[in-house]
Amino acid sequence: MVRDIDETQAPLLDHLLELRTRLLRCVYAIAIAFVVCFYFANQILAILVQPLVHAFPAGQGKLIYTKLYSAFFVDLKVSLFAAFLISFPVIANQLWAFIAPGLYAKEKKAFLPFLIATPVLFTMGASLAYFFVMPTAFKWFIAFQGDRGGLQLEALPGIEEYLNLVMQFIFAFGVSFLLPVLLMLLNRAGIITRAQLVAARRYVIVGITALAAVITPPDVLSQLMLAIPLLILFEGTLVVMRFAEKKDAAEKAKAEAAQGSA
Q: Are the beta carbons of 122 and 152 closer than 8 angstroms?
C-alpha cells in the first residue's frame, strides 16, 4: 500500500517542482525588468504624464507631492508597473510551457489563439485608455478650474494620486478588453453557447454598464468610454461564435459522412 501511494505521489511532486521552476522564471523576469525600468523611471513617468500635460494649457501643468518620500515610491510603482507589462510575454510563455504538455494536439491548437489574443486585446484596451480616454477625461476634469464665488479654483494633482489613476485606467481597459477571450474559452469548453448569450443580452448590457461604473473613475464620461467598446466587443464575439459553430457543425457532418461511407 505504501508503495502504491508513493508511486501516485511522484507525478504530483514532479508537477509541483516544474511549477516552482516556472514561477521562479517569472519572478526573475519581473526582477530583471524592474531593475532596468527603475533606471529609466523618469523617462517612463514622462510618458505616463503626457495625457495630463496635453490636458493643461501650454506650460501650466503641474504635479505636486506633499510627502517627502512620495517621489521615491512613485518611481518604484512606475518601475514595477512597467516591469510587469514588459515581462508579460515571458509569464505567458511559462504558463503555456506548463500547461501545454497536458493538452492534446487538438486542444493545443484551440487554446493557442487565445494565448496570442490576450496580449493583443490588452494592448488595444490600454492604448484606448492612454491615447483617447485619459486625455479626454483629464481635459474635462481640468475644465472645472476657474473663479468660484470670488475664489480661484486650481487643479494641483498629486503625483501619487495621478499615477494610481493612470494605472487604474490602463488596467481597467486592458483587462476589460479580454472579455472576448473569456467568452470564447467558455464557449469552446461547452459551458455557454451563443444562443444563451443572445438570450441574456439585456443582462449582459446591464452587467457591462455596472462593471464600467465600478472599475473606472466616478465620472460618466469614462464609464461610457469603457462600456461602449465592451458592448461592441461582446457583439463581435457573438459573430465569431456564429462562424465557429458553423465550422464545427460542418466538420462534424463531414466526419459523420466519412464514417457512413466507410
A: no
